[in-house]
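Good day; I would like, with your permission, to put a structural problem before you. What I wish to show you is a protein chain and, alongside it, a tokenised description of its three-dimensional fold. I would ask you to consider whether the tokens describe a fold that such a sequence might reasonably adopt. You will find the record immediately after this paragraph:
***
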Amino acid sequence: MRKWIAVAVAVLVVVAGVAAFLLLGGGPDPRAAVLRAEPSTAHYAPIATRALDPQPLTVAEMFPGPSVSAGTTRLALKATETLADCAEAAWGSALDALDGCTQALRARYESEDGEISGQFLIFNLADSAAADRLVTALRGDGFVRPAPDTPEGFDGSRSWAQARALGHYATVSWVAPVVEGGRVDLTYPQVAVDGLSLAIQRRLVR
């Protein structure tokens, strides 16, 4: 009997370890260790639905420059892509909140010293309620996927992310160190990448 109890305990320890490993970004689908999530507000009423804002997003609109910056930090744009299948950019609980998503745009960034990697995603959803559902789902047991060619050292266990519902859009900015050990200040990198969401403001006055 004691042997079976010991085996059961060992199995639980392994399972718990694997769960923690995946949660903290050690698995093939990492998630942010720190996530801030914000629902849409009345400010975005002019683009609360796709019917009010039917023009598709473009890479040039969302990622117009070769870099983003905040404070003393500059991150260079490395790649962009437009996804017709939004499910390619998410996993887990986030997939269940993508009904009606018609496109997802994604860009990948790196700091000049190569120590920080970041990405920005924007999902084109049916309405603000759908955008809110996706932002809420990102708090669950799923998240967005790292962009293609994200450095292998991208450390989900030390990463920060910001998810926002902006009318019928949902954005996710995500930054992480790609160097081992030590504390890395992600404040400015997060602000720089998240600043890409300001492009949506121009749609409020069209």
Notes: The helical segments are 2-23, 59-62, 128-137, 187-194. The chain has a mean pLDDT of 88.
